[in-house]
Automatic annotation (TrEMBL):
Coiled-coil residue spans: none
Protein name: Acyl carrier protein phosphodiesterase
Provenance organism: Chitinophaga rupis
GO biological process per UniProt: fatty acid biosynthetic process
GO molecular function ontology, one term from the record: [acyl-carrier-protein] phosphodiesterase activity
Record keywords, A-Z: Hydrolase, Lipid biosynthesis, Lipid metabolism
Taxonomy, superkingdom: Bacteria
Length: 196
């Protein structure tokens, strides 16, 4: 999953949100630099990623990207899931999504002193370009794909290639989201219920 899903699946718990958002920027023993509650958020993030990677519908979606994008299909699929979450009216109206995005940015800004420096570099762009809201828009997805293809070391195709897959298989990808995400939500709620 990508940033919007990790934020949403923290269910308004500030420490879990922080951990969930920074987890990819915390390596090895660096986890010990964070409070126990934020550490739980980091662990939740990793559990979400494992559940997502192993799910049959995620694998089905990735196969659509694989011929042109190889293993990077996993990265594009994470963005695709955020797109459909952002457009999921059972979870967000347009206004609710904007308010949610701003609340996440504010929380992270207020805790900037405790966040990994590399994450803060990413966060600058996340906030100024309003990534969490713009996943809702197809233009936002194209810009996100462009950022991935620009930075990807082993992917030699322009953003138009995975974006064409996204457009051509939009309904199939949406069905993957609709079947997968409710199961992920239940999984995370069960994990959070076990926390002390």
């Amino acid at each position: 999953m990508n940033f919007l899903a990790h934020a949403y699946l923290s269910f308004n718990n500030p420490s879990i949100i922080i951990g969930n958002m920074i987890a990819d920027f915390v390596k090895g023993k660096q986890i010990l630099q964070h409070t126990p509650a934020v550490q739980e958020g980091i662990r939740i993030h990793r559990a979400i990623d494992t559940f997502t990677d192993q799910h049959a519908l995620t694998k089905e979606g990735r196969e659509l990207f694989k011929p042109s994008c190889g293993l990077y299909g996993a990265v594009f699929m994470d963005i695709v899931y955020d797109h459909f979450l952002a457009r999921d009216l059972q979870r967000f109206t347009d206004v609710q999504l904007e308010q949610f995005a701003q609340s996440i940015y504010t929380l992270l800004e207020n805790n900037a002193d405790s966040l990994p420096p590399v994450f803060l570099q990413v966060f600058h762009y996340m906030r100024t370009q309003n990534w969490l809201y713009n996943y809702r828009l197809t233009d936002g997805i194209y810009r996100t794909f462009s950022g991935i293809t620009r930075r990807a070391r082993y992917l030699e195709v322009p953003a138009s290639v995975p974006f064409a897959v996204f457009e051509e298989h939009y309904n199939v990808l949406e069905n993957c989201y609709q079947g997968f995400f409710p199961e992920l939500e239940v999984f995370v709620k069960e994990k959070l219920a076990l926390l002390p």
